[in-house]
Amino acid sequence: MICCIDCDIPNTHYIRKNKKAWKRLDKNKLCFKILNKVKFYYFCLFFIYFLWPPRQQSMIYCIDCDIPNTHYIGKNENAWKRILNDNIDIAVVLHNDVHLSPSFIQNLHFVLDSAPLNWEYLQLTTSNPLIQRHMEHIIEPWISWMPEHTSTSAYVVNRKGLGKLLKSESVIKYTSTNVIVKTQWEIEFSLKREIPKMKKTILMLSTTLIQSIVELERERNFWLIDKENVDVYKLVVVVKTQEMYDKVTGEMWDVEVVVNPDPFAKFTYYRRFLSEMEKFDYVLIKDSDQRMPPMHTMLEDDAVIIGPLRQRLDGEVDTRQWYKFQDGHLWKSDNKANFDNKLYFENIMPKEVPMLEQFFVVFDGAFAQWFFQQILTDAALLRDGKPVQSNWGPDIIWCQAAKEWNASRKPCVIIPVISQHDDTRQVVIWSSSEERAKINKQQGIRFMALFPQWVNKV
What we know:
The chain is of the alpha/beta class. It has helices spanning about 40-50, 80-85, 105-115, 130-135, 160-165, 215-230, 240-250, 265-270, 275, 295-300, 330, 340-345, 365-375, 380, 395-405, 435-450; strands spanning about 1-5, 15, 30-35, 60-65, 70-75, 90-95, 100, 120-125, 140-145, 155-160, 175, 180, 200-210, 230-240, 255-260, 280-285, 305-310, 350, 360-365, 380-385, 385, 410-420. Helices cover about 30% and strands about 20% of the residues. The protein has an eight-stranded mixed beta sheet with strand order 15-14-13-16-19-17-22-18. It has a seven-stranded mixed beta sheet with strand order 5-4-6-10-8-11-9.
């Protein structure tokens, strides 16, 4: 992107004179700033000396094995400290139980180029047969890593990730759905080429509560990943004080920042985007701590409303959630209910359900316009003239509304792919107090009273 501050140069993005434009320079998004009346010569010098990214040093290591064109690390040697001492930016680490694709080196460059921008650790193979079969049906080259993705036989780590690993800190991890390394011969080598461009448009709506610059830095890279997956991203950043507002607006761009010291309902903010919804094929509503699942894979289904599974990184069932039917851990286990959940997960078979929770939901754009225009009213979102403080209600009624809107399509469907749940707990937990539980229950009852024709009996 080329940005122009207080000037009107063709094919550039205009930035107002008083905006902190330099804050818009992000390491993942190269953005040129051309000051008004600056000479192109000086701009070129600035680009060459300050913006051109330095060449990264990479190396392939093999632990206790002798694979050609790799650097040997002894069995008892500390691999991470060795990589750190070698001063390497990106290290590929292989163990002696791996088998490499005949075109491993060539394919490795392709695979790494497709990795998410914020990666710190990339798992190249998993020994879990269920996950292997699941990934065969994924269109995208990467999915969020989960504890069930067993194996450290082949992985890639960058300098930032290595620093965290040496400090025993958590890293941002993804698992490759391309098979260029394997530990079991029954898996065939395969390589997924460039993902086809999404033919339909997506509007994404989200809110987030930011209480410190540390939180802002943590979330910002994930927002960039979110933006890569959609056409338009409407993010409302809520802060509690004017001081925090000043700090956040100095660090952020292309988002709306509002001051609200009280607990809030996200649908109050989504209301302002009603006129935008019908312009898009899909409207995605997601919690800010939910990471992107494989969207191309999800949107192959034609249901009116689509949702993924969610799972925390600890791999355990989230006992705090009211409903458990969208917990990814349960779909990978032998905990069969009325259907073979592992079969559905393994083959990514859509499952029609009577309800989808609101943590990550994809709506048909026309339906979203029709539905939210009817429910996001003062009667539903105000109480005694003040904004309500609970999100409860809409997910109780939208599946039945979808059935009324188009009886020929499935109303609500789960696509068994995982959206990583970071569980930042920005919103007060529903069971944290009797008062909080009362507020949520009242809001749910209000929606059922306002829209009895759509009440889900689940």
